[in-house]
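User: I want to check something. If I give you two sequences, will you return the structure for each one separately, not as a complex?

Assistant: Yes, each is folded on its own. Here is the first sequence with its structure:
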Amino acid sequence: MTWVLGICSAFLVVAAVLVVVRITRGPTMLDRIVAFDVLVSATICALGLEAAVHQHTHSLPILAALALLGFVSTASVASLTGGRQGVEEEDR
């Protein structure tokens, strides 16, 4: 069980580092928004892993709030940018 926890933790850390790189270097704002959504998902996975390892449910409200944050932020960006031309091109 310990090596499974280590592998899962390593994958989550690598994913978070790569996502932070994408947030800082992303060529467009939409790339950064998608990367932020993936970072929220990685955080949810990390909290879920911690809750499973320690066998408690104290972090369930935090998990629900983060899931709601990820959904609402993605839906609001999609509704604001839907149908506009030139969204891919960032102002320089």
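And separately, the second sequence with its own structure:
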Amino acid sequence: MFEKAADMSELIEGKYDVAVVKRTLMLVIWPEGGQPKLFQGMCPHAKEPLADARFDGKILECHHHDWQFDGATGKCVKGKPCSLAEYPSKVEDGVLYVDIEGIEPNYLDAPPKQPGIMR
């Protein structure tokens, strides 16, 4: 079911914004020369929020560990192979809508914890 994510008048090509729909954090990324896309709002690497990421109009860079993602596809271009989950979206009457049903964020499995060394 599509829900309102943002008014198109509030979005700027080459920038990103943050949206929350039904308690789901997501990024609204509008890459230069492309269309607005909605991706998971947490980095797949360490589950850190991407709300304070850097975006140059093409590449989104996580502020926490410098992993980079293609703003048009969500594919990781610096870091381990992964991608940001993309939510289906549509624009109608100047409003960007998103459907979050059935889409789960992508996260890399955390490495197993190493037992502490006892001395």
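Because they were folded independently, the notes below concern the second chain alone. The first strand starts at residue 3 and ends at 7. The chain has a mean pLDDT of 93.
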